[in-house]
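Translate sequence into structure tokens.
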Amino acid sequence: MNPKKTGRLTLITLAALALSSCSVSRYLGDGECLLDNVSLRSDDKALATSQLSGYVQQHPNSKWFSVLKVPMSPYLLSGTDSTKRYNRFMHRIGQRPVVYDSLKAVKAQASIQTAVRNLGYLQARVDLVERRKGFKLRLLFDIHTGQRYYVSQIEESIDDPVLLSLADSARQESLLREGMPFDANLLDGEISRLNKLMRDNGYYQFNKSLIHFEADTLPGPRDVWLRMTVDGSRQQRYSLGSVSFASEGNALRERALQRKNLLEPGQLYSESRVQDTYANLSTMGAVMSSNIQLSPSPSDTTTLDATITVLTNKPHTFNAELEGTNSSGDLGAAVALSYQNRNLLRGSELLNLKLRGAYEAIKGLDGYDAQNYIEYSAEASIAFPDLMIPFVRQAFRRRIVATSEISLMYDSQDRPEFHRRVVTGVWRYRWTAANHRMQHRIDLIDLNYVFMPWISSTFHQEYLENASSRNAILRYNYEDLFIIKLGYTLNISSLPLTATQTSNYGTNAWNMRLSLESAGNFLQGMTALFNTRKNADGQRTLFNIAYAQYVKGDFDFAKSFRFTPEHSLALHLALGIAFPYGNANVLPYEKRYFSGGANSVRGWSVRELGPGSFRGANGEIDFINQTGDIKLDMNAEYRCHLFWLLDGAAFVDAGNIWTIRSYEEQPGGQFHLDNFWRQIAVSYGLGVRLNFNYFILRLDGGMKAIHPAYTDAKRHYPIIHPNFGRDFSLHFAVGLPF
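Result follows.
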């Protein structure tokens, strides 16, 4: 960019910010000032002041990348007359200047002091320091902790022998230890732990008010004596009597409800089992809401009868979708009709039926008779709300949220170059642990049958038979093919997997995904056993059709670090490797990796990068050859709130794909351990997110920094020699990249 233009743009930006700053005074009354900064300082480094920021009642206006208060600017650039539409709009998308409120500061001071004393600093003092400069004020909460006190003696008094026995049985789980800091938060945690313990062991009427602590200082300089008292003199232990079921609306079979129920006659009352039963019922698609009513049995005052009532959803849903398409200027349309039954067999079985049709007018294909694309597909699936595997204990089934799925799909594609048919059948299990932070998926059978009933003579001659353009990867993907695979996927997260992606946005969360799949081994054993015929390429066939054989593994890890409510850093690593062997030298196209795009290295368009140092003819995208067997993605993204619904991001991406074998059509694409790192592409850029809380629209602009496909310095290091028209890629997507 021209330095003069850059300087002019910088001056304009600074001038706009200066004018915005000057206009703050319009929103300040006599004696008022803008809250510019809030900080906390402690004279004890062991005290993490970040844990106390939640007690601060006023925070200054947010800043872009922790520097510029741009989010406030739209508000300041508007007028004060709220009857005008423009002013109301600017007020809505901007941030109102935060006017310092000394009363809120004093309340925060008291709250912080109490919180610090609750951590064991019994003589802590918090000073409020105000530093005013012009119309701006910087606020400091200066924490003087004094000495921290520690618990040197613990006594307890539990007057009921059964309660005492329960407490002793869970002694190892106690939060209290002699020598620990005198922390009121730990005392509250111990009360909650004991309350849960008692309510999970029959004490239906037990509550936290029956547990209290006494504390006093001892002659030692920082010693505290602690006494815990549990009043159980009037507590009664309850067992469950009868357990009955009722459903309102579209009836559910009692057996289906019983599979989700954890309450059984004769067992001690347990609050956790009641809550887990609620959670299990909520996973049934047919259930809108549920209620568990507990009442004393007429025949026994120590017995509770349970009545479980569910209100069901409407079982039938119909949907119609119409969409327009534009593929490189070729216009088209698609329509989809779907039907859903949430209670097919009165056991909350979910039936999905879908029909889809698409048409696209294709222009500019010389040598082909037809000039359009027609696709239609039919899909049917049914999901059972249980793990339908023999020999699995009922107790395990009730501790998990599981589905067993069967699906079938037929897809027909008619292009001017070829006709393609795909038949898919899947038998799959999913289950999630009770804490919803670990999810398993097993694809027991995943069958894909791809066949090509017709290929035009022009396509045959130009791509499949022409010696100069013949391509093994291309040819392999235009032959009839069986893919029968077995797969396993594990998802682990620090937050419940049921949470939406946006609820994890900007939190201290992590997520890991590991998947393994293998295809062709069963067919290899069968065809070898029966010595079936081989085709011209030496591949064994089933019904004269070759089958794919490969093993594939993927690892994905993402971690975010939250600095403030509006600023966070997200890191991401993804690694995948797939190896064709036995009956195949090439991976099926849909199993191959590609790089670039909105969720990969964003300086490149999708399928534009790699493999290795390979580049398409004349630098153009080569969709067939720019695929590989190995993939590496590494991403770092700084995220911050801008204003209104807009969030911003600055990112750096690195990665590439490689092939395991050397293919003539992909020179420079093979992975070599000693120099693969020289072929890692790097990009950087900025992004904007429109955050609606329940979903996110994302626009990212990436610039190439290191381009592995070129050896000359100017093209290999575009970060030093940038060319916007050549090195920039724009991506629009829904959801976060990781």
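Note: Residues 1-22 have pLDDT under 50 and may be disordered.
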